[in-house]
Amino acid sequence: MPLFAAIEKIVGPRGYLHKPEDLALYEYDGGIDKSRPDLVVFPESTEQVAAIVKAAAEAQIPIVGRGAGTGLSGGAIARAGGVIVSFARMNRILEIDLPNERAIVQPGVVNIDITSAVEADGYFYAPDPSSQRACTIGGNVSENSGGPHTLAYGVTTNHVLGIEAVLPDGSIIDTGSNYDQPGYDLTGLLVGSEGTMALVTKIIVRLMRKPEVVTTLLAIYDRPEDAGDTVAQITERAITPVAIEMLDGPLLRMIEDAVHAGYPRDAAAVLLIELEGLKETVDEQIDQIRAACALCKAREVRVAANAEQRELLWKGRKNAFGAVGRFSPAYYVQDGVVPRTQIAPTLRFIEEVSKRHDVAISNIFHAGDGNMHPLIMFDPRVPGEMEKVRRASDEILEYCVQVGGSITGEHGVGMEKMEMMDRQFTPATLDTIAAFKKLFDPGCRLNPGKVLPTGRGCMEIRQRPGDLSL
Known about the structure:
The chain has 16 helices and 18 strands. The mean pLDDT is 94. Among the domains are: 117 residues, Uridine Diphospho-n-acetylenolpyruvylglucosamine Reductase, domain 3; 110 residues, Alpha-Beta Plaits (2-Layer Sandwich); 75 residues, 2-Layer Sandwich (Ribosomal Protein S8, Chain: A, domain 1), CATH 3.30.1370. With 470 residues, it is of the alpha+beta class. Helix 8 crosses helix 10 and helix 8 packs antiparallel against helix 13.
């Protein structure tokens, strides 16, 4: 049976898209790469996902899972064509189990909707990517997403207790629902695998109790390097805030024009620092952080007076990427990681790269865990601009690796950073990663052309749309 006919039998005539004008909406994510699929399918159950995967397997067609498309590394792009399985209609919270502090959700559930469902009972879901009002849990699992509060709470893998998934042959597996599963940690293996091993169809997530007190501070600096040095000073004092975010001067001004969050327009950088816990502990930590900021030449440290001020400061941080769109036709955001002690030198190196390649770069990042997000601004309509931006990006990531860091902290490798994987890992390690890919997906049909560099991964020859027709 031709694939279109098989798909229509599974999901009905309104369960898929195949017209060019519809497919164009699925040829990109939040990054800068593009590739158009041949078909987009909208399953509503695990059983439908399994049937779709089996049909694609029979037709030898590549498959790519997709959430909200907010990813930043090309992970949800159909690089080899074929079928995109969109989880937009699998968006239900199936169970909330507060006594055991967990919830069972479908992959299309929007991140913040989990917290919204339980916050009245004093709980929340900790991982909070900046796109949390749009990104989905399935995508978070695939990319092992982080967010500002991962300094204290960790990334997605620290909050996933079990997974149900469909393998490339259409079989369904369950990695368990208990806190301590016997045998191999399949949950840990699949979280962060970027959809190259299985399609996740159900997730058991950890819920956490809200703290007694939450306090947000804004430290203001005349030099970005001083803000970077402050992070190391806070660490030396054995304080672990739940978040330390840094924004540089150019980005502060963009945010203020768009959001009016209360950031100082004349500052060279700010640190957004959040503390939580028992009131007495937080009060003591505020004094210590003030001292650390003063030692590193902060000109002022403000404490949010109430919940409204705190929420406004975070609104500015969460909407920073959108604010850039008012000033630049496009931007390329990177995701390198460096040790905390290397933040200040890395900021100086990024400035050198900006001058060397004549590109504007602004910085916003999770300073607490050294996860750098330089925003390289450019106009894709200008010939040669894209090439300059890519060269600048590669230099920054190579520097991150050289100082003991990583090419990605939360955005994933996707197709964007795959050619840099050999800078991060030895040949033996890359061979091991490739062996896992082959074990799960011997036909190389699940999100092919991602993660592993050319020659070590696989790229299925795409089928033409005519091969799929009804």
